[in-house]
Amino acid sequence: MARPCAVVGIGQTDYRRRLEVSLEGLVRWAALEALEDAGLTFADIDAVVIGKAPDLLEGVMMPELSLADALGAVGKPIHRVHTAGSVGAATAISGVTMVESGRYDRVLVVCYEKQSEGNATWALSGGKSGGQGAGGTFAPWIRSYIKRSGAPEHIGWQVAVKDRRNALRNPHAHLRIPDISVEKVKESPMLWEPLHFLESCPSSDGAAAVVLASEDLARRGPAKPAWVIAHAKRSEYASFPGRDPVRPRAGVDCAEALYRKAGITDPLRQIDCAELYVPFSWYEPMWLEGHLLTAPGEGWKLTDSGATELGGSFPVNPSGGVLSSNPIGASGLVRCLEAARQVRGTAGEHQVEGARVALGHAYGGAAQYFAMWLVGSELRPAFA
Amino acid sequence: MPQPGLPPMRTVLEYPYTRTTGPVIGAFLTGIRDGRLLGGRIGAQVRCPPLEYDPGTGAPADLDPVEVGPCGTVSSWTWVREPTASHPFRHPFAFALIVPDGASTGFLHAVDAGGPERMSTGMRVTIRFKEQRAGAVTDFWFVPEEDGAEPAPPVEGGEPVTLTEQPLSLTYTEPYHPHRVRFLTGLLEGVVTGQRSPVTGKVYVPGRGYDHLERTLMTEEHDVVVADRGTVSSFTEITPVRYHGQKETEPYIRASILLDGSDSPITGVDIRTIPLAEFRVGLRLRAVWKPEGERDISAFDNRSTGGWEGVIDRWEPTGEPDADTRALEEHAF
User: pLDDT-based confidence at B307, cuts 50/70/90?
Assistant: First the structure.
């Protein structure tokens, strides 16, 4: 039986082009803030886990070696997780399992990306000309979703506006567009039909960190813990006959496993808010459906109703989400720690009132890697 | 295992990365640019280069600068007999761990000693700066102390160094997998070869040498020739973004095509001659091959599925009615 685990410290940098800091300085900012939040120092940490997206993004190979001493890991176990865009959430889960195992009492999880040092499209195309880019990969699946669900075209624009408005409440957010509007989104350049420029994520630098602790240490404080109620990871091949990339089986299985472990039977009602990995606007309704929060074909209706806005019945990405900040390797951990901030009641201007249970999620690759956690203000919340 | 008929593929991966230095390494590199070697005091030690933190504990450390060198002691070394293009010298030299005078720790750098007989652990070396300096570790090297004149006095007053360039380049060669050789040889002959899974009967184009769902080996006996015509199963219009090495400037279509007789579409197919307005899922296309002597497979590596533009000149509508898109769902994408 796994031991309970909680988030006891949270740290994150501002997400933008960070030309004034070194890579070490960037990750240390997040790590030191998380330690301070937890009332700890590096000396109190038993193991460190690093997550980031492909090495080609910065051209730094095996960064877990070069960053070990910057993260106070001398003489301690350290390992690196790499599951493409889902890595931030997968890294958090890797840290949780270390605490759950009983072998480590406090684990520091740090994720980062410094996109300004390289170029993501170059890296994702393996250094070749004619790179398709992430948007080019996802656009046909988005069109397929629209056709299948009958969603009206304004849904994508609406998600983009909502997340950018939420970002105005989050001082860490990269994109801040005070006069964002549906007109502005749909008039921005078309990048990959049907995705406009303002429906796409930015290239950000940034780092995020959490301190995870066992139950007895978490209860000692000083900060209010966010309990990890359940977590799940699933993956599938990028391409095979019969694959449905619009609603990947791995995403459905991952959500099912997560809700089952948590004892959740009606996720939309029993979960108070979610930070979903939405790098392109249409992925909000696609993941609402693909992760069983709504029935197939119903996700866009939930978005259209305003329920996913801050103040709605199921706020999605109150922080502004990946659409507003995308330090790729850290983005999944940012979803997870923003969920934790919600249930701790420390999300500031983008706090969802009364949030008790929150979902943090990330996906990666060709919509093939999934990692999710549910965090709560109580360790074992009763779900009615 | 070398394959007859096809030379190993050669790949060059290069990108001009940049590095932000932060305040501490920035001060070190600014010192180099000005012609001085800077260390930083952390606790009882003077570290060169300086660090933003105590490497033993991770505790923050503000820069407490100490000028070190210009001479130092070699604590370990190795002789480089055959320098590569990225080495600091074209002639043989030593890489050595050098502890500058006044510093507690050493760093790896080059010693231009002439021959390995002049190198020894414990030997004294002195720094030599290039006349033109950008603020990089390649702005200097070391020589045996007896070869070195006193360095010129530092030059002050430039802007602090905050960003460095780090162009990385990696060239590697890799033999093609046997199944890849058969696939590529087929393309040179104007034939598309796939592999039929012995378990499910599904045909994969290109084959991988194994069925990745059933985890079953697929060998030459599983090769099948499929048609060079098929149905568009998916596409994207790409608006090229600029990046290092990007040659595309105008929008174009990237399509997946399910070839007749195959269960897995070929992907990353360039479409340049069919207008976007006429392009759609379900459209029937046929390949127009390049003349036999002009086919180029160099854009295919062992893993990529793209590269068709090297062997196929263009894809043309066949004029047949569109395929039923619902029937494609089993294979689309």
Answer: confident
DSSP B159-220: PPP-EEEEEEEEEEEEPPPHHHHHHHHHHHTT-EEEEE-TTT--EESS--SEETTTTEE--G
- Would residue A264 count as lying in a domain? no
Number of domains in chain A: 1
Enumerate the residues of chain A whose CB falls inside 8 A of the CB of residue B264: 239-241
Cα of B247 to nearest chain A Cα, Å: 6
Residue B92 C-alpha, separation from nearest chain A C-alpha, in angstroms: 27
How far apart (Å, rounded) are the C-alpha atoms in residues A354 and B65? 51
* CATH assignment at residue A75: 3.40.47.10
ipTM: 0.91
| Chain A residue nearest residue B235, CA to CA | A140
Quote the minimal CA–CA distance from A273 to chain B in Å.
32
Measure in Å the smallest separation between the Cα of A133 and chain B Cα atoms.
9
Residue pLDDT, tens place only, B185-219: 999 999 999 999 999 999 999 999 999 999 999 99
Question: What pLDDT band is residue B2 in, cutting at 50, 70 and 90?
Answer: very low
Beta strands across the sheet bearing B192-196: B203-204, B192-196, B223-226
The closest CB to that of A133, out of B14, B21, B241, belongs to B241
In a domain, A345, yes or no: no
Q: Any idea where the domains of chain B sit in the sequence?
A: 22-161, 177-328
Instruction: Give residue-wise pLDDT tens across range A217-244.
Output: 999 989 999 999 999 999 999 988 889 9
A56, two tokens: 């080609």
Chain A's closest residue to B213, CA to CA, is A240
CA A8 – CA A40 distance, rounded (Å): 10
Selected residue with higher pLDDT from A383 and A361: A361
Structural domain harbouring A102: 5-120+204-219
pLDDT at B331: 57
Nearest CA to B75 out of B57, B56, B101 is that of B101
Smallest Cβ distance to B243: which of A18, A119, A139? A119
CB pairs A-B closer than 8 Å: 147
In a domain, A80, yes or no: yes
Peptide bond into B321 cis (omega under 30): no
- For the stretch A59-85, pLDDT in tens is 999 999 999 999 999 999 999 999 999
Residue A192 domain-assigned?
Answer: no
Mutation target to probe the A interface, by most A beta carbons within 10 A, among B12, B15, B205, B269 is: B15
Residue A268 carries which side chain, given as an amino acid letter?
L
Among A28, A132, A242, beta carbon nearest to B268: A132
CB contact under 8 Å between A127 and B13, yes or no, is: yes
